[in-house]
């Protein structure tokens, strides 16, 4: 605060300027409208509101020059807060005040010249610019504090809506509509969900991905947690996932899982689960982007992790309880048997051993499990259990029942 009061000569000039107040207000209003487009177009305030604001602020300035003591800057604070809430840009706001305050100064110049009182003019000039500094500082501080509060509130609301979207807490269409509006996403659009493992607390595994997607005209919304950076990405077409996957690969710094393409924002929570499953399938310690398979069986297994893990442990438990080396060899052989559609020759080529060795391992598997690779029911259960073990590797570590 630099202005602390006025001098008698300045007070006299200010009293004379007070008489001219209607003219000063009209002149300031006219120049602001002519020189600043956002006020001319009534984008943030109407002309009536602008005229009233001009009068209030010019009365403050001239009144402060008339009276002694520290001026009351509450109107500056109130104006700063109101314009911030209206979204008016700060540079144009300050420019409007400079135009209005300059009108007062020019009026004081005219009055001082008419009286030939140069000393009073110098003192008035010093006082008016000190007041302008105090006023604009109070206004700017209030404006910035209000903007920061608005941004913080919007950010918190955005995070809450994202949490509701990713958790599936969007039971009503109205809530979904509000989420879509706030996140600038289409309610009935086509999307993928991305789940990327964070390299450390507060670190993004996909730095700058939202801006990179926006530049390619893909809207997205992201949430960063201690373990995961999750995002829902809008596709321009149902078959348009490939450019997004390519962009993810360009920006990834670690493991990234991607859901299948899906429609409808209300399905985001399930898609996040599938993206997390895809993430779990990526090799630890690598930079890899993995999209969840469209396999119906994989989707069924992933839809209920607890039940699927229980099935895997129940069906494969005799193998899981073997020493690690034996367990890994037999599980690898069994997976290859399914991938190669039961061809012993192809399995041998895949696991680099003789076909007789494959037959011996398969016999050991069926003996350990008490199941047959010729029985369709046993084959279905073994295939499902293997799929669950692949999607949820921690299954092998479940406590014994």
Automatic annotation (TrEMBL):
Signal peptide: none annotated. Gene3D superfamilies: PucR C-terminal helix-turn-helix domain. Residues 330-388 form the PucR C-terminal helix-turn-helix domain. Residues 173-279 form the CdaR GGDEF-like domain. Residues 22-158 form the RsbT co-antagonist protein RsbRD N-terminal domain. Belongs to the CdaR family. This is PucR family transcriptional regulator. It comes from Amycolatopsis rhizosphaerae.
């Amino acid at each position: 605060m630099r202005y602390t009061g006025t001098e008698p000569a300045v007070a006299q000039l200010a009293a004379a300027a007070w008489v001219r107040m209607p003219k000063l207000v009209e002149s300031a209003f006219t120049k602001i409208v002519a020189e600043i487009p956002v006020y001319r177009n009534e984008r943030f305030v109407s002309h009536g509101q602008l005229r009233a604001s001009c009068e209030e602020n010019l009365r403050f300035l001239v009144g402060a020059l008339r009276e002694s003591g520290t001026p009351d800057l509450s109107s500056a604070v109130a104006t700063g807060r109101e314009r911030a809430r209206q979204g008016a840009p700060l540079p144009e706001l300050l420019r409007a005040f400079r135009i209005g305050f300059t009108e007062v100064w020019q009026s004081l110049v005219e009055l001082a010249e008419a009286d030939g009182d140069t000393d009073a003019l110098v003192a008035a000039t010093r006082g008016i610019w000190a007041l302008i500094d105090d006023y604009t500082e109070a206004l700017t501080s209030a404006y910035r504090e209000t903007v920061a509060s608005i941004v913080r509130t919007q950010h918190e609301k955005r995070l809450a809506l994202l949490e509701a979207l990713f958790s599936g807490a969007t039971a009503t269409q109205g809530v979904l509509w509000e989420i879509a509006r706030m996140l600038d996403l289409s309610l009935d659009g086509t999307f993928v969900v991305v789940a990327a493992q964070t390299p450390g607390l507060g670190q993004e595994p996909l730095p700058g991905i939202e801006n990179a997607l926006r530049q390619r005209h893909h809207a997205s919304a992201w949430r960063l947690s201690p373990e995961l950076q999750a995002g829902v990405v809008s596709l321009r077409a149902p078959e348009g996932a490939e450019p997004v996957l390519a962009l993810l690969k360009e920006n990834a710094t670690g493991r990234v899982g991607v859901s299948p393409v899906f429609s409808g924002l209300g399905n985001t929570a399930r898609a996040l689960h599938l993206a997390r499953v895809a993430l779990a399938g990526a090799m630890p310690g690598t930079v890899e982007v993995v999209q969840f398979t469209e396999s119906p069986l994989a989707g069924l297994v992933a839809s209920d992790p607890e039940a699927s893990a229980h099935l895997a442990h129940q069906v494969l438990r005799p193998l899981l309880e073997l020493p690690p080396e034996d367990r890994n060899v037999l599980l690898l052989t069994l997976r290859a048997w399914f991938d190669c559609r039961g061809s012993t020759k192809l399995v041998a080529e895949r696991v680099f051993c003789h076909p007789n060795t494959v037959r011996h391992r398969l016999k050991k598997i069926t003996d350990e499990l008490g199941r047959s690779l010729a029985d369709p029911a046993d084959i279905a259960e073994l295939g499902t259990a293997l799929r669950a073990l692949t999607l949820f590797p921690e299954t092998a570590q479940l406590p014994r029942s």
